[in-house]
């Protein structure tokens, strides 16, 4: 199952792959042209880069150190560009490549890395250009140099502004896509994403992880008696009451309608069932205020735990869901975990 939106890393991996294929194509072309022009050093550098790009293409999809791979590629890549400008026989048009530096840096390294690497290599590029072509002190050369420096800085500025607003918009988009807009809780997509992460932590550290699925009892009656708006308020009320009883590391989410889930990292089945039961009592002691009076809310819940009840989100949800329906069938306002019913036989003094 594909979880979540495409991340920054995936996006940068794609850009890097495009750059590597461009290097292979352009490097092969320029290497053969420069062999024809007998520029042996430059041709050798370009041929080396074709092989270097091909070797990075082999690892780019599986490396966990993408940022370092990018730096290891970009530093010699840009250095070769600068070197190309110093070689005798190089035409002034090679400077066009310097203007790609900020775009490549910001797309691959983000704001901070992009800024520093652009600054260093644009400065080196402009210096190399001025060293090579600025020997004749004509006004035309000065104008060329000024144009080259200013246009590169302008591209750097635009790339910076673009990357900053892209990062902001992406963060906002991810927040919207992972939030339930009625209650402000996490939604199913967020649950899937966090569960994947917590599942690997739990398996690595040999720690438990449990899931509660809960469904409000007789919710339709609230809608029918007090209207849809009151139903919406009831869902927000439940979200706020349950959130106030949970820890920051627990994840409460609304799956849809009047169905919710709580992911509990570090909790074994029994602890999760106790907590679900506690949430049930907590909610029943905080009735919803309606214009005409108060309405007590209850829910039925099923609990499942990683390992015993399955390894994937789907398996855990299916088991917890089945147990939740057992709780409904057994009379509602209760919790079921592995065939165990809560409240246990002794009556709950707080509810009587
Ligand atoms: N106000 C409001 N109602 C919703 C929303 N989503 C689903 N519902 C309503 O929730 C009700 C769910 O009804 P049922 O599935 O019969 O469940 P129930 O009445 O809680 O009964 P049990 O689950 O069997 O205890 C339906 O009337 C839906 O229209 C929502 O976002 N806002």
TrEMBL record:
InterPro entries: Diguanylate_Cyclase (IPR050469), GGDEF_dom (IPR000160), MASE6 (IPR048435), Nucleotide_cyclase (IPR029787), Rev_trsase/Diguanyl_cyclase (IPR043128). Pfam families: GGDEF, MASE6. The keyword Chloroplast does not apply. It is an enzyme of class 2 (transferase). It comes from the Bacteria. Its EC number is 2.7.7.65. The chain crosses the membrane at residues 14-33, 39-57, 69-87, 93-109, 116-133, 139-162. The keyword Lipoprotein does not apply. Residues 207-340 form the GGDEF domain. It catalyses: 2 GTP = 3',3'-c-di-GMP + 2 diphosphate. Keywords: Membrane, Transmembrane, Transmembrane helix. This is diguanylate cyclase. The lineage of its organism: Bacteria, Pseudomonadati, Pseudomonadota, Gammaproteobacteria, Pseudomonadales.
């Amino acid at each position: 199952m594909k979880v979540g939106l495409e991340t920054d890393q995936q996006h940068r991996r794609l850009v890097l792959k495009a750059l590597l294929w461009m290097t292979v194509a352009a490097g092969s072309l320029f290497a053969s042209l420069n062999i024809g022009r007998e520029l042996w050093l430059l041709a050798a550098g370009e041929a080396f880069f074709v092989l270097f790009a091909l070797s990075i293409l082999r690892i780019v999809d599986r490396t966990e150190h993408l940022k370092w791979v990018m730096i290891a590629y970009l530093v010699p890549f840009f250095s070769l560009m600068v070197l190309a400008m110093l070689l005798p026989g190089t035409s002034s048009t090679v400077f066009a490549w310097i203007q790609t530096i900020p775009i490549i840096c910001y797309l691959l390294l983000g704001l901070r890395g992009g800024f520093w690497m652009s600054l260093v290599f644009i400065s080196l590029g402009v210096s190399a250009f001025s060293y090579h072509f600025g020997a004749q002190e004509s006004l035309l050369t000065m104008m060329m140099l000024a144009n080259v420096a200013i246009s590169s800085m302008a591209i750097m500025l635009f790339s910076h502004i673009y990357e900053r607003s892209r990062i902001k918009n992406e963060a906002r988009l991810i927040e919207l896509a992972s939030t339930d807009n009625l209650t402000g809780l996490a939604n199913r997509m967020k649950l899937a994403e966090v569960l994947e992460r917590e599942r690997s932590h739990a398996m690595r550290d040999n720690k438990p992880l449990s899931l509660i699925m809960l469904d409000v009892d007789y919710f339709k009656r609230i809608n029918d008696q007090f209207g849809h708006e009151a139903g919406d308020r009831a869902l927000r009320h439940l979200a706020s009451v349950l959130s106030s009883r949970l820890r920051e590391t627990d994840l409460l989410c609304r799956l849809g309608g009047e169905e919710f889930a709580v992911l509990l990292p570090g909790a074994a089945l029994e602890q999760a069932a106790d907590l679900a039961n506690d949430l049930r009592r907590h909610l029943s002691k905080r009735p919803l205020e309606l214009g005409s009076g108060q309405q007590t809310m209850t829910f039925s819940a099923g609990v499942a735990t990683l390992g015993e009840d399955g390894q994937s989100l789907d398996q855990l949800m299916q088991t917890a869901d089945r147990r939740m329906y057992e709780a409904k069938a057994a009379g509602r306002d209760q919790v079921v975990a592995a065939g165990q019913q809560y409240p246990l036989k002794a009556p709950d003094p707080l509810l009587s």
